[in-house]
Design brief:
By secondary structure, the chain is mainly beta. The chain is 12% helix and 40% strand. It starts with 13 loop residues before the first helix and ends with a strand.
């Protein structure tokens, strides 16, 4: 089945084309990592830009106590996202193993679990908001 984040053209499998047409407006999109201080469940956010790979690796590869948490931080894509609180933009980081389209709107679910206490990261599901 076609990955929700892929921007490549759909496969020639007509059932995949049909399922893409009948997806609900809020579709499950997988899980991501976000810092605990930046987690606001059920609040829509927008992907502003993708971080360069070396910055993503630098952030995920620098644990405060020198204990390696993520064995391959280069498997993650880093993004800058923005929330709108009281008409003031708030910019934070988000990390995903999947591609997220710039300009895409998403919302965190309320199913967050600690991914790493050392890095202060949560793993949480996101849903695409149309």
């Amino acid at each position: 089945m076609r990955d929700e984040f892929d921007t490549e053209p759909p496969s020639t499998d007509r059932s995949a084309d049909f399922s893409a047409l009948v997806r609900p407006s809020a579709q499950p999109s997988g899980s991501v990592l976000v810092f605990t201080r930046d987690f606001y469940p059920n609040v829509p956010f927008r992907i502003v830009s993708q971080l360069p790979a070396f910055i993503t690796v630098s952030i995920l590869d620098e644990p405060p106590d020198d204990v390696q948490v993520i064995s391959q931080p280069d498997e993650y894509n880093g993004y800058v996202i923005t929330y709108e609180f009281y008409e003031t933009p708030v910019f934070v980081f988000l990390f995903s193993r999947r591609y997220l389209p710039t300009g895409g709107r998403f919302r965190f679910a309320d199913d967050a679990t600690y991914f790493s206490a050392n890095l202060d990261l949560l793993e949480v599901s996101v849903t695409r908001v149309e």
